[in-house]
Amino acid sequence: MLATFLLLLLSSLSSPSPALAVPPRPPVRCGGGGGAGCVLSNAYGAWSSDRADCPVSAVAYPATEQEVVAAVARASAAGTRVKVVSGFAHTIPKLACPGGNGSSTLLISTARLAGVEVDAAARTVTADAGAPLRAVIDAAEARGLSLPAAPYWEGVSVAGLVATGSHGSSWWGRGGAVHDYVVALRLVVPAGEADGWARVLALKPGDDLFPAALVSLGLLGVVSKITLSLEPSFKRSITYEYRDDTTLQDDFAAHAARHEFADITWYPSQHTAVYRVDDRAPPDAEGDGVNDFIGFQSTSIAVSAGIRALESSLERARSVRGKCAMAAAEIAAKRLVGSGLKNDGGLLFTGYPVVGRQGNMQTSGSCARSPAADILSACPWDPRFRGLFFYESTAFFSPPARFRDFVADVKRLRDAAGAEKLCGVDAYNGLLVRFVKSSAAHLGQPEDSVVVDFNYYRASDPAAPRLGEDVWEEVEQLAFVKHGARPHWAKNRLVAFAGVRGKYPRWGKFAAAKRQLDPRGLFDSPWSDEVVSGKEVEKSDGCALDGRCVCSEDRHCSPGHGYYCRPGLVFTEARVCRYSVSQNQ
């Protein structure tokens, strides 16, 4: 336990100089000139659909909207499949892969399409598709304005976060989803020869196509510019309150109603819930704090590799006790350093509340801003350095009463399986609970929703079973099957998307917009089809281990390692891969 705590504490306290940190690798890598021999991968080095890089025939790097139009026109004239990727690529499903298997494909990177312009009089910011979220926030703050909503991770492009429905946390005002602050966008779509093979649509609220273009998943065309509404700059005050989780299912809604930017982090194995008390502070409130969440800081490569090696050794030893020691150490380390909040000057955490400007408090991700220099530290999940490797499941519950029932079921599962079986998720960040309002976007949330996000160990070998695998497969099926939660478009294992079309009441309107804008399906691919079709893939040996299927036979698990397909403990309709010393147990 002490060694685990010291390792995690070292990670949380180590703040290497940015000059000694390695920036994330670019998602597109080419072996030859002219875009030949290129592959696309995401920031984690593995997709949810499979773990193979995506081969692409050609890559375009437009720096202006005119160049985007030219790239789309070339693809449209040739009938080439085309997809878009930013300079970050943190999406876990393989949405950005245009295809492969020998077919001609084009990947459009927005890494060089990154301009930002603030209109202080109109209180808006217009950003090119590839503009980093941090650049948008900083430009607004420099003009005395703030973006009210942002995802917690800042290493994303403005078009990428809007297109996938990324969000922060709030039931107040317009809510926590960034796409609900879009007041205009420009979309480049395929066209016929008479229109030069591509055209630009300028869309705004009230236009028929606007609700489809907000959360578009890259399926309609290429977003070239987005305009977001801003507010006069303001400050926030954040305090984390550690409580017993006894009343979580009864008081989450009141917490969200009481605090504008509330969230809750639930550590079920530790019977602990951490309530984020997060509100606007008066403009003259003292404080120049910074939110630099420890999980998103540049971390010593040796520390990240050491934590991964420790967790992998515990998996091999089937050491539930060791996993629980990691979970306890994780919580203790975060509590000691305020989870990365830093008081005046952004140097150290000295106590609550932490007060700072909205632009410094609403999001974090300092490891994404590391310049190229040395190789001492990096984002802890950087696949080049054998650091953290995990699944991320995110579920939207609505109406909120469904989340209450989900919490009650997870507590029953904790009682049935033993609290120690839930330590694996608490060794990461527990279950992060956030709040998102209903949206006008066709693929946004149709009702006010509670969002649950949790990370957990992913084996380096896709055929390797995991410690406590049955518990987290049951939690996953409790969320998406029993309680009908909707999956986050940019996260989740493939099984979470089963039946997804039926969970979005305006899916038909989105599909109609797609038929209108891309009738030839140039922005489709087998990989994005796997996600949005909501159909179960063909089952094969071991398919349940990496989340490609729900088991229905033992062979879908790993009987050779003692993992067999069994009913859930609480949700008996669930089918999970459970370890047993005998196939007959």
From TrEMBL:
Span of the signal peptide: 1-21
Pathway(s): Cofactor biosynthesis; L-ascorbate biosynthesis
Entry keyword S-adenosyl-L-methionine: no
EC identifiers of the protein: 1.1.3.8
One Pfam entry name: GULLO2-like_3rd
Reactions mediated catalytically: L-gulono-1,4-lactone + O2 = L-ascorbate + H2O2 + H(+)
Gene Ontology terms describing biological process: L-ascorbic acid biosynthetic process
Alphabetic keyword roster: Ascorbate biosynthesis, Oxidoreductase, Signal
Domain FAD-binding PCMH-type: 52-233
GO molecular function, one term: FAD binding
Cofactors named for this entry: FAD
Any Gene Ontology CC annotation: membrane
Homology family: Belongs to the oxygen-dependent FAD-linked oxidoreductase family.
Protein name: L-gulonolactone oxidase
Source organism of the structure: Eragrostis curvula (weeping love grass)
Lineage: Eukaryota, Viridiplantae, Streptophyta, Embryophyta, Tracheophyta
